[in-house]
Hints:
mainly alpha
Amino acid sequence: MRTSMAKNSKIKIIAVKSIEEHILEQELLKKEISQNHSSLDEQNQQLRYLKEIILMQENLRETEGQMNILKQQIAEIQKQETIQDYQRQEINKKKNSLKEYRQKIMEYKHHLVKKTSDYLLN
């Protein structure tokens, strides 16, 4: 009976040790899982940051493209303004020429009137 009790207590001790080992293994697994979750959370956060950075880069490229289009449009507008300025200058030159021509016509007309009146009076 003693031997059977001793065997039973050995079995109990072995069972208790086995249960304690199993509990320790479970706790280690829980810690490892918790660490893995933390690591996954950090990786997810990093992925979110990377996604935001990629979106910002895409927006930047789009904005740069729009800026290039605007620069081209501004250059075209400046070119058109230069052409218009040149055309204005040419128009002003022609206006001035016309004014001078009118003035000469008026002077000649007065001269003709004077000559005609002098001729008629004499």
